[in-house]
Design goal:
three-stranded antiparallel beta sheet, 18 helices, binds protoporphyrin IX containing FE, about 475 residues, four-stranded mixed beta sheet
């Protein structure tokens, strides 16, 4: 098995039985592991071979080839190959995991849910949660205090997504132990399966489905499914209209475009995909700005100027904060939520200008974290510098040097909403408070090894003072 890449004449990293190149997978985060692999091999050509246990996979390092895989030859790489089991667990049949024509059709139907018009419509909900966040900070901070910002920001994003995706007012600032938040945290921090079972499902998804293995804990799945069913029933009985994802999904269900199970699965993925990503982005951004007072002042000045121009924290104001967007993008560069993107090959694919064929079913990996920290593209790559995302600087770089939202037809569908959420959360903090490191601030930041997304290992403490 381990002679596969040598036989294909493809450079590879020497594997170790039985882990292949993922021996340290339970001690090292995916981000750190991928950057070690990338740095060891990036000068060996446009791609190199790896083994996940006994399974060969290919890591792509050349930006043009990455672009081809994501966009031009998308038909060869339409799926992620993530384990899901719709028959036994309808909640796992969401947009992120489903494949083929089913994905294509659902993506087309869901895309109108995320237009800028729809974002504007949902803005008042975001703003109201932002106001709760500001009030919470005022109570917590007083005349200055050390606070765990990851927790505060997570409450903000939970409430936003809870409200927009499920239509429930789960004020977690007042009720931190709400079931909604507990189950949300559980899905990320306390997955149903051990690392061994997750490895098995990754290697043998068909067998996993035959054995009827599910992805989520029974009680969490039941909770979210019931929540959606109850919300739909309540809204239909009481003719409730709200400006949120849920009402858009209900309208699709009533047109016959979605079943109840599919509606529940989509609101569930909006919650999962929208809560952790945006919350980590804001946390990391505050962390970086705490260490860089000059950038913090510039970001604050940009926020206050836009608020003054547009009469407060309005939709127009948050869309007129270019420097804040630069800070958000620079944070996404340093801390992409998904450090390695994957695609599964749908049919045999000959890599352009080579004799190498990627066989049907093999996975290719795109090392987003490593590319975004490669000094060839970003000089002094570990230094936070929002000027890199000035439009003039961005225009000079290859489009695949920034892949924090993915690329091509499977790019993040919630990009606009994620950005909006980060802008509102950060503008709320920066417009009222000054942040700085304190004795409990982790230096350097370490990443969780348990999570598939790039989460800080521990809580993140910062000193927060009113302006
Ligand atoms: C800062 C915030 C966010 C980041 C960094 C982020 C990142 C990503 C990434 C990297 C992907 C994979 C793209 C690929 O494979 O090419 C993705 C997919 C996805 N995201 Fe996001 N996301 C964010 C916010 C959101 C929000 C707010 C929602 C929903 C409300 C959302 C829903 C989804 C869905 C449904 C997919 C799967 C799309 C598909 O396969 O068609 N994301 N996201």
């Amino acid at each position: 098995k381990y002679s596969y890449w040598a036989r294909q004449n493809v450079p590879f990293i020497e594997p170790q039985f039985p882990y292949g190149n993922f021996k340290d997978g339970n001690k090292t985060s995916i981000a750190d592991l991928s950057i070690q692999q990338y740095n060891a091999m990036k000068d060996c050509g446009s791609f190199f071979g790896l083994y996940f246990f006994l399974q060969p996979l290919l890591m792509i390092t050349d930006l043009d080839l990455i672009k081809t895989i994501f966009i031009k030859d998308f038909n060869y790489f339409p799926d992620r190959g993530i384990y899901h089991n719709e028959r036994d667990e309808p909640l796992s049949g969401h947009l992120f995991s489903i494949e083929g024509n089913k994905w294509r059709s659902l993506r087309t139907r869901l895309t109108p849910t995320f237009t800028s018009g729809k974002m504007k419509m949902m803005f008042p909900t975001l703003k109201a949660v932002g106001d709760n966040f500001a009030e919470y900070l005022t109570n917590m901070v007083g005349s200055g205090a050390e606070i765990e910002v990851k927790d505060g920001v997570a409450r903000f994003t939970t409430d936003v997504i809870g409200s927009c995706a499920f239509g429930i007012e789960c004020n977690t600032f007042l009720e931190p132990k709400s079931q909604f938040r507990e189950f949300g945290i559980q899905v990320f921090d306390d997955p149903l399966h051990s690392g061994m079972v997750r490895m098995f499902l990754r290697l043998f998804p068909e067998l996993g489905r035959k054995l009827r293995i599910k992805v989520f804990r029974e009680e969490a799945a039941k909770f979210f499914h019931k929540l959606v069913a109850d919300t739909i029933a309540y809204r239909e009985t009481n003719s409730v209209e709200r400006n949120d994802f849920m009402s858009l999904l209900i309208a699709m269900k009533n047109k016959g475009d979605l079943t109840l199970d599919e509606t529940a699965a989509q609101s569930f993925i909006f919650f999962l995909a929208g809560f952790e990503t945006s919350s980590s982005n804001q946390t990391y951004c505050l962390y970086e700005l705490a260490f860089k007072p000059e950038y913090q002042e510039k970001a604050r000045a940009c926020v206050l100027k836009a608020m003054e121009k547009h009469g407060g924290l309005t939709y127009e104001a948050v869309n007129d904060m270019q420097y804040l967007d630069q800070c958000i993008n620079e944070t996404l560069r340093l801390y992409p939520s998904v450090p390695v993107l994957e695609r599964k090959t749908f049919q045999n694919y000959r890599i352009p200008n080579t004799d190498v064929i990627i066989p049907k079913g093999m996975k290719v990996q795109i090392p987003v974290f490593a590319i975004q920290r490669d000094e060839q593209y970003y000089p002094n790559p570990t230094v936070f510098n929002p000027d890199r995302f000035h439009p003039d600087e961005m225009a000079k770089r290859h489009m695949c040097t920034f892949l924090s939202f993915g690329e091509g037809p499977r790019i993040c569908i919630g990009l606009r909403f994620g950005m909006l959420q980060s802008r509102v959360g950060l503008a709320t903090v920066l417009s009222k408070y000054r942040i700085s490191p304190c004795s409990r601030t982790a230096i350097p930041l370490e990443f969780s090894v348990r999570s598939g997304v790039l989460q800080p290992k521990e809580g993140l403490w910062l000193k927060v003072e009113p302006l």
